[in-house]
């Protein structure tokens, strides 16, 4: 028996990988094995020091501690590192003509209240009035009656209801709509504005340390579901707005940038129940078969 210490870098990695062989779930085994391989390669490539690893542990601990019922700092971290958008891209939609997906983000935290078609999301009413309408359909044009649209957006000042419970009633900027017999949907809201993602936690510190801005271009979130079709998580972005070319979470796809057309039509405004003039965004949401 030798007293010599024979542990090498490669031996540590081999032992850690070997310890995963008994993982019963093959997909979990595949994921953990690749994770250990990449983490060990990272530590080797960067010659990661004990102090640096300690700081990283502190950062991840603070990220977990920043999470509450109304805040998800880990999703935010995944978003600013581009990982959320990479996962979306790896599993991009395959059917030509269907609407592209993009990130969920950290603010889909509360259930959206069910609202009638034509109702407003804007319970405060201090933004630029806007109508959003279109159809949910399949790629071959078949309308999808009864499709459910879960919609959420920041207010005209760039905050979600959960961020400003003192200034916004719960459910402000949120709505759950059921498409009509032709797959049609319509709702009223205010034109969303660009906003900074939360920077008062560890992710904000990361952005400052890397000299990055924290802004997202103005957008409205959707999760659209219909029987027989894959649920679609996406946004529409306001054409002509700031930060379309430098989204802090890399989530802009050109096909999702839509005109919010200035509209001066008193009769139409009356029909829709909005003040004149208003802005009107029209687009279809096209789902992929599951
Ligand atoms: C959002 O659009 O709500 C969002 C997405 C990623 C990070 C922060 C916010
Ligand atoms: Fe958002």
Explain what this protein looks like in three dimensions.
With 290 residues, the protein is α/β, with parallel strands linked by helices. The chain has 2 domains: 9-48; 77-287, Aromatic compound dioxygenase (Protocatechuate 3,4-Dioxygenase, subunit A, Sandwich). It is 27% helix and 20% strand. The strands form 3 sheets. Strands 1, 4, 10, 11 and 12 form a 5-stranded mixed β-sheet that branches. A 5-stranded mixed β-sheet has the order 3-2-7-8-9, with no helix packed on it. It has a two-stranded antiparallel ribbon with strand order 5-6. It is elongated. The N and C termini lie far apart (61 Å). Residues 105, 107, 154, 219, 221 line the site of fe (iii) ion. Residues 76, 79, 103, 105-107, 197, 216, 249 line the site of benzoic acid.
Series of secondary-structure elements, N-terminal to C-terminal: HHHHHEEEEEHEEEEEHEE
* Secondary structure: number of strands: 12
Shape: elongated
Secondary structure: helix percent: 25-40%
| Domain count | 2
Task: Please summarize what this structure is.
This protein is an alpha/beta fold and 290 residues long. It is 27% helix and 20% strand.
What secondary-structure arrangement, pairings included, does this model have?
Layout: H1 9-18, H2 26-46, H3 50-65, H4 73-80, H5 83-90, E1 129-138, E2 148-152, E3 174-178, E4 184-190, E5 195-196, H6 202-209, E6 215-216, E7 219-225, E8 232-238, E9 257-258, E10 261-263, H7 266-272, E11 278-282, E12 285-287
Parallel strand pairs: 1-11, 1-12, 8-9
Antiparallel strand pairs: 1-4, 2-3, 2-7, 5-6, 7-8, 10-11
Bound molecules: benzoic acid (BEZ) and fe (iii) ion (FE).
Fe (iii) ion binds next to strand 7.
């Amino acid at each position: 028996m030798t007293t010599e210490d024979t542990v090498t870098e490669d031996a540590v990695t081999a032992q850690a990988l070997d310890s995963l062989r008994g993982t019963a779930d093959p997909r979990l085994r595949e994921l953990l094995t690749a994770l250990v391989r990449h983490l060990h390669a990272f530590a080797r490539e960067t010659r990661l020091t004990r102090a640096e690893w300690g700081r990283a542990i502190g950062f991840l601990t603070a990220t977990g501690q920043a999470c509450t019922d109304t805040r998800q700092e880990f999703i935010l971290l995944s978003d600013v590192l581009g990982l959320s958008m990479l996962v979306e891209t790896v599993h991009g939609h395959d059917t030509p003509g269907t609407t592209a997906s993009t990130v969920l983000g950290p603010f889909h935290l509360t259930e959206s209240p069910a609202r009638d078609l034509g109702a407003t999301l804007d319970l405060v009413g201090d933004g630029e009035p806007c109508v959003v309408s279109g159809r949910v359909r399949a790629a071959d044009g078949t309308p999808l009656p009864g499709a459910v649209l879960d919609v959420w957006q920041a207010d005209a000042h760039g905050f979600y209801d959960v961020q400003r419970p003192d200034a916004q009633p719960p459910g402000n900027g949120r709505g759950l709509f059921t498409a009509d017999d032709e797959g049609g949907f319509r709702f009223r809201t205010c034109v969303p504005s660009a906003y900074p993602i939360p920077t008062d936690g560890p992710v904000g510190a990361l952005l400052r340390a890397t000299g990055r801005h924290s802004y997202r271009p103005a957008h409205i979130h959707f999760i659209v579901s219909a029987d027989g079709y894959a649920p679609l998580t996406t946004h529409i972005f306001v054409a002509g707005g700031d930060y379309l070319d430098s989204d802090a979470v890399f989530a802009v796809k050109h096909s999702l940038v839509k005109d919010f057309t200035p509209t001066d039509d008193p009769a139409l405004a009356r029909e829709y129940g909005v003040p004149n003039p208003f802005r009107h965004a029209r687009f279809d949401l096209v789902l992929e078969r599951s």
